[in-house]
Every structure is written in structure tokens, then in C-alpha cells.
Amino acid sequence: MLSFLRNFRPLDWLLGLFSQDVGIDLGTANTLVSVRDKGIIINEPSWVAVRKRTREPLAVGAEAREMVGRTPADIVAIRPLRDGVISEFEITEAMLNYFINKVHEQLLTPFPRPRVVVGIPSGVTEVEERAVRDAAMAAGAREAYLIEEPVAAAIGAGLPIIESRGSMIVDIGGGTTEVAVFALGGVVIRRSVRVAGDEMDEDIVQYARDKYNLLIGERTAERAKITIGSAFPMPEERTVTLRGRNLINGLPQSVEISSIELREAMAPAINVIVDAVKDAIDETPPELVADLMEVGICLAGGGGQIRGLDDRIREEVRMHVWVADDPMTCVARGAGRVLENFDLYSRVLATDDRSRRLK
Ligand code: ADP
Ligand code: MG
């Protein structure tokens, strides 16, 4: 009670009555924002268009991605978190700023001083953590906390992470795949690999080039992956048409490619992900492995939706594997849930925040 009084700031308390709790999934491919009682209100690609020479941010999100390939040569669109690390702080800050301000615009918050929980890739350094927190504060947050993405994903997927029982999440995004085993509210084992959806797209581009001398764009590859890509033989194999440019004669060309070929193209990336899951299980203490055999393994993230990935992992590790409901929104929903049950979940926040809370 005494410490409550000592920490009591009447102004913040009053502002809290009027402003929002905001959960942000700062993903390598997509940024999602969830707001208490409103659900996901923003879902946009994590892109920023900048002037090449000055690195000045010009557009963010969907608008920035639309500029790719259609802009003057001195404007480039970049994904500041592409590899799961924050490559350019100012650009990440501009992105966070844009999304937080967009929340206020959409909700017409009377006093825009939200409490924010941001999901960040688990591999980021302390310096990067501080950068994200500072960016959130600079964008007007009243309080900003960080949470590792796999932890938020697990909460969003409804895994029992604060029970003593073990559970496991595999979150496959654009740039990174994060595997984590939980027990007693803590991460017992974590594995993060920089192989996920993007790498599959790159593998498909490479495959078309090697096998058909066909140069295709990454978005064409991504579309093919989403339409017929798979990680396990399918009851009915299908085909899709890839359009691009022939590398020998420079002319436009289209090639019909089968889901069997596409599976072969994506196999290197899929194998890395399967190995990361196996490694995590290998390191998991036997008691928790017994729990996992009961609860199973949950797949989340956009890449969790690859056809047959659940079957493939099931076959390799002989455990029940399932895809979370609405897998692409797990992190944002999980971050939102942390804010709703702050006392229950405060111990799963990133280290700095946790130590601050415990002081
Ligand atoms: P991040 O958390 O890194 O921002 P997401 O969880 O948003 O990533 O997932 C983005 C990745 O998921 C992209 O590589 C995209 O191509 C892939 N993806 C999205 N939908 C599907 C789908 N239905 N099947 C396979 N992959 C998908
Ligand atoms: Mg993600």
C-alpha cells in the first residue's frame, strides 16, 4: 500500500481513464495493433519508404509498399525489421510513431497517452530494446513495455504459459521463426532462426531461375507459395502459373509449376524450421517433454499456415501439432491480453521491464 502511494501519480492515473491500452506486434513483415475492447484496428505491412540519400521517411505501411517499383529512383521502400533486427533506428521509430498516431486518429482518443506493450523479436539486443521503448515513448506512450514475440504469440494462441505445465509455440513470420517452450510463466527453451516466409519466397525465385531460366519477382513467388505451397504431400497436387522474364532471351514468359515442384523449392527453408523444432525438443527437460506430448505443439504466424506443415512436424517429432486460431494476429492479441491482465502477466515482460516492475 505504501509503495502504491509512493508510486501514485494522480495525473497519469487520470489520463489512464481516458486513454487506450495498445498492443503492438512489430513484425518483420506485418505490424498489427490491437486496442482494448476494439480488437485489431491496424494491420499493415512493416514497410517504410525513405528518400535514398537522406533516409528521410516519406510513407509508412501499405502506402509505402505500394510505392515499391513505382517511385522515382531516389525513393526506396525498406523493411526495417526484415531480419528480426532493427537495422535503422530512426526508421523503426518513424514506423512506430505512424502506427501509434493512427490509433489516435481512428479512435479520436481525447488524451492520446496510451499504455503500450510492443512485441519484439526475441533475438534483439538490449540496445535495440531500448530503441523500441524510446520510440514508443517518443510517439506519446505513457508507459511502454516490451514482450518477446513468441511469448505474446503463445498468450494470444491461448497456451497455458503461466501454469507449471509445459507448452510450445512455433511462430513463423516473414523474417524469423521463433520456437519457445514455456513452463511456470517463463521461457525454458528458445530458438530463433532467420529463416521463415521470406526465405521460402527467395527459394522459389531461385528454383524458377535454375530450372526454367525464369526471372520472377518475390511477390509472385509469395503468391505461389500462399496459393499452392506445401510442406507435406497433398491429397490433390495442383499447379500455378508463374509469370516473369526469360533470362536467356529477355522476353516475357509464363511457366506452369506444380505443387510438387514448389514443395521441392521450399524444402530447404522448411527443413531449417523443422530442425529448429527438433533442437528445441532435444533440449527440453524430460518432464516438460511429457507435457508437450499431451498438450502438443502450436503453430502461429503467417508461415504457420503453410499447407501440411503441421503434418510434416507431426511426422518428424511424433507429437500432436496444430495451427492457432487466426495465427497472424496471435502476437497482437497476446500483447493486448497482457495489458488487460497486467498483474498476472507482468512477469513475462522483457527483462528490463520486469526488473522495473519488481523494484
Ligand atoms: P511477421 O510476424 O514476421 O511480421 P507474419 O506472421 O505477418 O510475419 O507472416 C508473414 C509471412 O507469412 C510472409 O512470409 C507471408 O508470405 C506468409 N504467409 C501469409 N499467409 C500465408 C499463407 N496462407 N500460407 C503461407 N504463408 C503465408
Ligand atoms: Mg510475428
Polypeptide structure, described:
The chain is of the alpha/beta class. The chain is built from 14 helices and 16 strands. It has helices at 2-7, 10-18, 62-66, 89-107, 126-138, 149-156, 197-212, 218-228, 259-283, 286-295, 309-317, 330-340, 342-345, 351-358, and strands at residues 21-26, 30-35, 39-45, 48-51, 57-60, 75-78, 115-120, 143-148, 167-172, 177-183, 186-193, 214-215, 239-246, 252-258, 297-300, 321-323. The strands form 4 sheets. A 5-stranded mixed β-sheet has the order 3-2-1-7-8, sandwiched between helices. The longest helix has 25 residues, at 259-283. Magnesium ion (MG) binds at residues 25, 27, 149, 171, 173, 301, 331.
Helix percent band? 40-55%
Terminal Cα span: 14 Å
Distinct ligands, ions and cofactors found in the model: adenosine-5'-diphosphate, magnesium ion
Fraction in beta strands: 15-25%
Compact overview of the structure:
This protein is of the alpha/beta class and 359 residues long.
Give structural attributes.
359 residues, alpha/beta, five-stranded mixed β-sheet, 16 strands, 25% strand, flat, disordered C terminus, binds adenosine-5'-diphosphate, binds magnesium ion
